[in-house]
Amino acid sequence: MINQAPHFYTLRANPREKDAAPFIIFVATINGKRVRKSIGFSIPVKYWNQKTETARPGYKDTNRINQKINAINRAMLELMDNGDRNSKTITPEDLNRIFENGAQGEDFIKYIERKAAEDLATLKIKKSSKNTYLSFARALKEYKPVIPINQVNTQFWEKFKIHLIQKGNKKNSLWLKLLFLKNFISRARKDGIIEGNPLEFVTEKREKTRRDFLTIEEINKTEKFYFATATGTQKNILRAFLFSCFTGLRISDIRAMRQGDIAGAWARITTQKNATPENIPLNNRAIKILQSGEGKGDQVFMSLNGQHNADLKKIFAILEIEKKLSFHSARHSFATNSLLFSGDIATVSKLLGHAEIKTTQIYAKTLDASKMKVSAMWDQPAETKKPDFSELLKTSIN
Known about the structure:
The chain is mainly alpha-helical. The chain contains 16 helices and 8 strands. The chain has helices at about 60-85, 90-100, 110-120, 125-145, 155-165, 170-190, 215-230, 230-245, 250-255, 285-290, 310-320, 330-340, 345-350, 355-365, 370-375, 390-395, and strands at about 5-10, 25-30, 35-40, 50, 55, 260-265, 265-270, 275-280. The termini are far apart.
């Protein structure tokens, strides 16, 4: 470290008004010389905590003062880090620039990157979520390499939105990135980096998407293709996909499964999304799928590359299943068909690992069309042949 710039905050009496509250002074040592700067606030002594060098609760400007101190501290840290990286010594002029710019704190992109590292280190998020944070940071950097956090406002929101549309982002991708933007600005306010939330009242609507799923007949057809025809990549992707159809596990959990997680008719896993331990019962079809192939090393399944959804699309084209499906559709299929069989939303919710039952209720809505079809059968004349539910209730292929 060639740049050591120790600094602290203290109070200094107002020389013009004897009874006025003292000023808060920033004091730093730059190249052996003491430099003093007012941070632009005064505070009664009883509201100043010299030990923590922050304003105590109860004073009208407490939040603003602490936000300013936090911003200066972050700007100083960034100044020292940049100096070290570029082998450049900090000068009093560098310090002047911090105060001339209002000590506006770190770059917004660096703030997101820092939060990603902090949240992963404190186990608030998994590595996959950290990568999502960093992906959003890259989207911002592509728009503008450096973004002072104080410049993120409603105008920035609109311009960034136009940029995303021009880059080809569809409705829900656009919604997700703007949601991240709003959430990180909210966190910056809570961290005391900015005063107020400039994006509090802006919103972007999410497009409602249809949750396509496979019917029992379509699952049977896919399973038959897997055992009789599929080879190579088709075999690998369908083994994992069908296992998800029969258990409801997410792709992240399937990727993480190890041989030691399988204990007879149970899979004992820790979910990747919520980091919660779950015991998943394995039905006969799920066990049959497990026994039909091998994974890579200790992994239960072969590695799934980024092309798995494209591979599935080709398979369903061969099977003439004309639906908008992805790997996650297997989980939807398990949820919807389980509700159709049992009607027990509480148990299905537990099998899916949902923290709240209202999340599971989303799947119940996809059954509305089926309910109407069953109800319509009562409109038929009494002498009409009774409906045959054997195909609907079939749970294994012939």
